[in-house]
Amino acid sequence: LWILTPTFSARMIEDFGTNSDESNWLTGVYFLAKSLKAGIIVIHQLPVNEDTLWLRVLGKGGTQKRAVEELVELPERNPFRENLLEILANWRKNLELRDNLSTEEQEDMMNLSPAYLKQREEWKLEGKQEGTLEGQLSLIASLLEGRFGSLDSELSSLVEKIAQLPISERTGLLLSLANLSRSELLERF
Known about the structure:
Largest sheet: 4 strands, mixed
Strand content: 5-15%
Radius of gyration: 27 Å
Mean pLDDT: 88
C-alpha cells in the first residue's frame, strides 16, 4: 500500500515509526513496519526531476505550482505531457464548477491554471486543424462530384488520398480535373 501525502513533518515521521532506504529509494519515500507492507511518499520531499513530476503535481502550494510549470515546459510531443495536461485541465475545470471552494482548492485552481490554459490552447489548435481538414475533404469531394457526378466508392476513396498530396501537387490536380477522365484520375492513384 502506498500513501501519498503532500507534506509529512519530522514529528510524524518519528510518530509513525517510519524509516527510509535512500540507497534503494528516492528521498521522500518512507516505509512503515514490515508487517504492514506499506509506504508513505512525501511529495514535497521528492527530488525535482521528470520521473517524479507526475507525483509532484499532486502536491500543494509551491511544490505543485513548480511541477505544473515544469509540465507546461515539456516538449509538445511528450506523451506524458499530453496525458497529464489533459488530466490536470479536467481537474481544474471540475474545481471551477464547484461552489464553496476551500482555500486549498482555490490555491489548487490557481496552480493548475497554466496547465489548463496550455491544454485549452492545444484543444483549440486541434479543433482548427480538424476543421481545416474537414473543409479540405469537403472541397475535394465537391469538386469530384462537380466533375464526375455522384461519388461511388472508388471516387470516394480518392478524397483522402488527394488531401494527403503536397499542396502544390493537390492544387495542380484539382485545377486539371476538367481535363481528366475518370479512368485517368483513378490511374494516378
